[in-house]
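G., the chain you wanted modeled:
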Amino acid sequence: MMQERDFLSTLEGGDVIVADGAMGTMLQDAGLPPGTAPEGWLLENSTDVVAVHRAYLDAGSDLILTCTFGATRPRLERTGLGERLEEINRRAVEIARQAAADQAFVAGDIGPLGEFIAPLGDLRYEEAVDIFAEQAAALTRAGVDVLYIETMAALEEARAAVEGAMRVANGTPVTATLSFDSHGRTNMGVRPEEAAEALLELGVAGLGANCGATLDMTFGAMETMRRVAPDTPLIVKPNAGTPRMVNDEVIYDAGPEDMAEYARRFVALGASIIGGCCGSTPEHIAAIARAVRS
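Predicted structure as tokens:
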């Protein structure tokens, strides 16, 4: 049982932790209307969110992410939910805990703000740190096992998120991953080695890559990060291949066995946490779990 050990000792203990897969597309299949923020929808549809979590747990996940990717104040304010930030983050953790039933770790998911930090945008760095700290504090109070920052593209935003999370973590581990989707860099031009060096300096418990344009590109980024950070736990949660449009529907080209093969390669590289991002399903996670545990 994963909960017999705390998250950090498990992360550093050498066992591979299987993470979950995509959340948004699974919720859409469960009835989330297009264009609706999942973070607000979960308040009235907790049973559906629990079902998604449990589908991944049944597939073999040891770690599930809360439905809080967009639960920072600026993103919630865009849908009129800013004043419910504490409630949304707390409820998302409660829902994940209900699903996990002490059999898996719960990660407090923190995504990008969707706006630029100065000088590219109007948001000052210190304001960004405060925004991330507010969400991280709510997730910490709700009792997550790890503050899980993901899908970052700008190095300054990644730094702000980590700094904000660490300010309020109170002993909760903080991890961070970036998305490499433009010729081996993030869409803001950040190289994997730059990201790894910056995150190492900040003292994260784990670092790596998620999302990404292709599985090969994500693997290349992970190889580089491993060279820069040979002793730090690596996290990888790639998309299920490359998306394409088929009859007005987005289809990802990597099947479960494709993801399983890459999972084996990530394990050989020394990855500590392996899951899936966009396009991945419980079937993908089940194949990954079988691959890393065989």
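The mean pLDDT is 95.

Shout if anything looks off.
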